[in-house]
Design brief:
Radius of gyration: 45 Å
Number of helices: 1
CATH architecture of the largest domain: Sandwich
Number of strands: 41
Largest sheet: 5 strands, mixed
CATH topology of the largest domain: Immunoglobulin-like
Distance between the termini: 111 Å
CATH class of the largest domain: Mainly Beta
Number of domains: 5
Strand content: over 45%
Shape: flat
Length: 464
């Protein structure tokens, strides 16, 4: 039995069990007009596509061969076939000027053998201007600006040439400077710009004018406005070379700025910069408040010291409403502190804190610093006694033992016995050797001291 012309392209015969997949790619697109990305296309243009095979005219429709605007709204029109392999779409109405259009051919288009177009093909083109070159536009818009100012000219007609002048004359294809990119207006001598655009086959645009007022840059003041706890000198400067500065304090008469001046009370400083070729700068206004009051420094409760277990330290200030910022590694809390009133200390810690007024009316406090040492604990010594005629190896168990810890036997009126071969097995176990040869018999204290000076003792070892 034979199966021929199957839609899936599979063929089988009684004499051959083999089958094959039809890899026919379908009709190809040989050329199209307008070209992809082409601009300045006439509004009366038809869309022409030429294929590698004869096309089934019945498959050509608004589903397989589509012209659409930039929002992908289909354009109405008619299809014609100058030859079996060429399809022409003619819009019902002329296209719009200076508009982008899209052309899409889909696999719904077939050749006369029934093979589909391989995959979607999309391209676009842009129509010509209306016959009059669009007027140039300015960016930024005309107005006052602190100089110097970069000005950009644009024209909606991509093929247009823009000419501009800054001397008050009218630009033309023969007069002015051809625009090639943003240019700088640095003062008011060239701040009135006139521009026009022209393009082949179109009427020249109108001459448009943009008037810019170039101002000197606003003066800068150091330190910036804010609240201060003492008198200080204020310095004025101008980013505009060749400018001079005038300033006033609290609405008084303006004076030339010659040197830094003192701010000793709450004051409002105003300043303006002037340049012979520019308009005056925008007005600088800086408000300062001088307040010699200061927040009381933080108090730590319980006080810094050595503790045998974790401790919760409360932070407080006698200044009502004050907040506290602290660090636990000895670093500057003014830079990277954490705001809070309770610090849980579980290991030896350098606690540093300052208090501040959230309204910023009072100056920040001086910092407070305290060292909290969390000592190790000794829970047991194994063995806890030994004869005084030979060294003895012992194991000490407890908590918070640190690398570098030392072990001693101590007893009043006797020289301490320093352990040797001290090994910190982990934070809860130490092994070491005690040389008790010839040492006084009786009870001795076992003392473990961490490198951070935290130490503990236990009256647990007896020499006999």
């Amino acid at each position: 039995m034979a199966f021929n012309n199957c839609s899936n392209g599979l063929v089988s015969t009684a004499n051959s069990p083999l089958s094959f997949v039809n890899t026919d790619p379908g009709p190809g697109l040989v050329s199209f007009n307008p070209a992809d990305g082409e601009d300045h296309v006439a509004i009366s243009s038809a869309i022409t596509a030429t294929f590698s095979r004869d096309i089934d005219a019945a498959s050509v429709s608004s589903y397989s061969y589509i012209l659409a605007d930039s929002l992908y709204n289909p354009i109405s029109g008619a299809y014609s076939f100058p030859d079996p392999r060429t399809v022409v779409f003619t819009p019902t109405l002329p296209l719009d000027y200076l508009t982008e259009y899209n052309v899409l051919i889909t696999p719904d288009l077939k050749d006369t053998g029934g093979s589909r177009f391989a995959s979607d093909k999309l391209w676009y083109f842009t129509t010509q201007s209306s016959g009059t070159t669009p007027d140039p536009t300015f960016d930024p818009a005309p107005g006052p600006y602190e100089g110097p100012l970069a000005v950009t000219l644009n024209c909606a007609e991509l093929h247009a040439t823009i000419m501009y002048t800054t001397d008050g004359t009218d630009p033309s294809p023969l007069n002015g400077t051809q625009y090639t990119g943003p240019f700088t207006v640095s003062d008011n001598n060239e701040s009135s710009i006139r521009a026009m655009a022209f393009s082949p086959g179109a009427t020249d645009s109108l001459i448009v004018q943009a008037d810019y007022t170039i101002q000197a840059n606003m003066p800068q003041i150091d330190p910036p406005p804010g609240i201060f706890s003492m008198n200080f000198l204020a310095t004025l400067s101008s980013p505009t070379p060749g400018s001079s500065i005038r300033y006033a304090i609290d609405g008084g008469a303006y004076s030339p700025y010659l040197a830094p001046f003192m701010i000793s009370t709450g004051s409002t400083v105003t300043a303006v910069a002037s340049h012979p070729d520019m308009a005056d700068s925008p007005l600088l206004t800086a408000i300062y408040l001088i307040n010699t009051g200061q927040v009381a420094p933080p108090v730590f409760t319980p006080a810094p010291g050595t503790y045998t277990s974790a401790v919760a330290v409360a932070l407080s200030s006698t200044t009502p409403g004050a907040l506290i910022r602290y660090t636990t590694d000895g670093s500057d809390p003014f830079i990277g502190g954490t705001t809070g009133t309770v610090v849980n200390i579980t290991d030896s810690t350098i606690l540093t804190a300052y208090a501040y007024d959230p309204t910023a009316f009072l100056a920040d406090s001086i910092p407070s610093t305290g060292v909290y040492t969390i000592a190790p604990t000794i829970l047991s010594i194994e063995p806890d006694k030994g004869p005084n005629y030979a060294p003895i190896d012992v194991t000490i168990r407890g908590t918070r033992f640190k690398t570098g810890a030392t072990v001693q036997l101590t007893r009043m009126a006797f020289t301490p016995i320093n352990a040797t071969s001290v090994t910190i097995v982990n934070s809860t176990t130490i092994t070491c050797t005690l040389d008790i040869t010839g040492k006084g018999k009786g009870k001795w204290n076992v003392t473990v001291t961490n490198p951070d000076s935290g130490s503990t003792l236990k009256k647990e070892f007896r020499i006999y």
